[in-house]
């Protein structure tokens, strides 16, 4: 066999093996270059993934407690733990970037997260008409920020215990853009429309006020957007547990697509 054929066969064998290893219904580490900086992230590839078709892609944004540089902490809360026990037939690729300590989901971290999503779209045959964003707490703020900054990118969003105005104990955590005067909720609603949104919040959340979620829900209704709001009675800040366990969430989310 000629050398170039040997090399080609070896490359094909490695590619097939790599794809088979990645499509194990678990998270695995990947890296992407962003402005000359190596950015690590985690990606979940469905157990039954194959290159024969395009796949939905979900971008998951973690909360402030999972920040760091170990590329592991972002798997501790929210969607990743749910996938460990319920991901056997999950029909989408899930991208889980990690924000460094003392940062939020804007600027460089927003750019890095979107670069990770783009890397996964290319590697795992992502469907650009079925890109979705979800986040909890700080990641909920991030989901609003990404939707404002990139209108039309996501086919739907699930925002959990997030908001657009900063909580008193974390003044830097705020969605950037709304003017100081006027109605910030309406400003955001007008910019994310027509992206469908499902908002989840705990009734007794003492970190991010439930009124913030209700205000965004009302603003989205006012501009005519498709929006759902679920408030969990007696639940504090950890509303991501019942939110990701909501049976209707994923059929609802994957039922939307952009006309790209």
TrEMBL record:
Keyword Signal (UniProt): yes
Tree of life domain: Bacteria
GO molecular function, a single term: serine-type peptidase activity
Transmembrane segments: none
Keywords recorded for this protein, A-Z: Signal
Stretches assigned to the Peptidase S9 prolyl oligopeptidase catalytic domain: 114-244
GO biological process: proteolysis
UniProt signal peptide: 1-22
Protein name per Swiss-Prot or TrEMBL: Esterase
Organism whose genome encodes this protein: Dyella jiangningensis
Source lineage: Bacteria, Pseudomonadati, Pseudomonadota, Gammaproteobacteria, Lysobacterales
């Amino acid at each position: 066999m000629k050398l170039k054929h040997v090399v080609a066969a070896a490359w094909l064998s490695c590619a097939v093996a790599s794809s088979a290893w990645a499509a194990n219904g678990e998270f695995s580490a990947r890296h992407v270059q962003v402005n000359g900086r190596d950015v690590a992230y985690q990606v979940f590839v469905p157990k039954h993934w194959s290159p024969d078709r395009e796949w939905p892609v979900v971008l998951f944004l973690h909360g402030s407690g999972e920040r760091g540089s170990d590329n592991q902490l972002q798997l501790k809360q929210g969607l990743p733990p749910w996938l460990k026990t319920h991901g056997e037939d999950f029909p989408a690729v899930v991208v889980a970037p990690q924000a460094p300590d003392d940062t939020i989901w804007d600027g460089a971290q927003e750019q890095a997260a979107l670069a990770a999503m783009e890397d996964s779209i290319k590697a795992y045959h992502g469907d650009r008409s079925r890109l979705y964003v979800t986040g909890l707490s700080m990641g909920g703020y991030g989901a609003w920020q990404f939707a404002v900054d990139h209108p039309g990118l996501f086919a739907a969003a699930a925002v959990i215990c997030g908001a657009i105005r900063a909580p008193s104990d974390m003044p830097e955590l705020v969605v950037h853009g709304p003017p100081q005067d006027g109605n910030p909720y309406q400003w955001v609603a007008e910019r994310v429309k027509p992206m469908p949104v499902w908002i989840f919040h705990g009734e007794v959340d003492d970190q991010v006020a439930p009124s913030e979620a209700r205000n965004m829900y009302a603003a989205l209704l006012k501009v005519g957007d498709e929006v759902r709001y679920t408030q969990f009675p007696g639940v504090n800040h950890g509303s991501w547990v019942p939110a990701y366990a909501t049976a209707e969430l994923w059929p609802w989310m994957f039922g939307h697509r952009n006309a790209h």
